[in-house]
Amino acid sequence: MRILSRTEIAVTSDGVPQRTGNNLDPWYANYAERAAGFAASEVRALFAVASRPEVVSLAGGMPFVSALPQDLITQAMERVMRDQGPVALQYGSGQGIPALREQILEVMALEGIRGSVDNVVTSTGSQQALDFVAKLFLDPGDVVLAEAPSYVGAMGVFRSYQASVVHVAMDEHGLIPEALRETISYLRGQGRRIKFLYTIPNFHNPAGVTLSAERRPEILEICRSNEILVLEDNPYGLLHFDEPAPNALRSMDPEGVIYLGSFSKTLAPGFRVGWALAPHAIREKLILAAESAILSPSSFSQLAVSEYLSQADWRGQIDTFRGVYRERKDAMIEALGEYLPQLSWTNPNGGFYVWVTMPDVLDSKQMLPRAVRELVAYTPGTAFFADGRGRHAMRLSFCYPTPDAIRLGIRRLATVVNGELDL
Ligand code: PMP
User: Fold this and answer.
1) Any idea where the Aminotransferase class I/classII large domain is (predicted)?
2) What is the pTM of this model?
3) Does 15 have pLDDT greater than 70?
4) Residue 43 has what pLDDT?
């Protein structure tokens, strides 16, 4: 094989290799094949603009950390340094600090999960736990099943291990069991290897819907009978507005479900503390995957979270967050009804997101520059599909802007939509 010279190849903005005389990336020929999956989002540049203060951003998923008791968190961090400084500054267990893993069991118990500390592995946010699981299970060409649409950050991880995401239809009650059955049998007929079902059962990112209690055992039974592992991603489960979410899938099938949790939404993403609760049979390999990646997660962050949990009223703080997000969700739903009655949307019972569906003549990706000119930003639906769908949809986040800013943002969005429709 001829080694390509460093000046012959470059990458276009969408990650496609191109022979060129321009020396844009002299190392392109040396990348591993999997690096082709590391494509920057097409809308990243626009998001940089959208972070300007005059733009109402309904695009990101940033928790409203200003609602946190900053003084209690500062005190927790000070106590960690005063009482456990040498531990906080040292390497720790690859699996995570035992005291925190015990507390994680208490958090998961709120959603019906009973587990053992032995099976909890802490990680740098649940994003890294997604990476550990993908690293452990995915070979190039494997299939991961995921809802249509699905979380963009998870699909990026699966793609980086050269797996394909195949979507399964969902409706307002979550993943549709019959669609799951059909997809599995179609893929098996094609000789494809399905490694796991990746699902966000509660207050879905981006769809805003929750898998009904009735469907949960059915989904598990379909996966069990087809020997497909379930990867349950549940960062929003405790942020419900009315009824709590039904019990976690993991609570119904401890050996068939890897559960992922996070302190990013119930406390703060800056700590970067998340976790996996693995089936017992998998735990050893998962810990080895974690150790090979990072040796050990941040001791300081884990101790700070642990100290906060043991000293502060964390359940009360989650209630505060629920109140804040509920008010913002109501503001968004009301404003959509007032300013954009020609569109349709989901009405979530928790979490951060509303999924908006537009008439077929509108294209959310193509419309985004106009929206940014009108000083409002959203995430185009195409970001949440692995197969190019989503042009007529968008995700709106209500977690960060105030209710007034949300109303202003939706009013601006209506100007954009009506402009596109020539109204
Ligand atoms: N899963 C889902 C569904 C998410 O929405 C996010 C963050 N937006 C994550 C995982 C990763 O969160 P973190 O790494 O902060 O725990």
Assistant:
1) 70-394
2) 0.93
3) no
4) 67
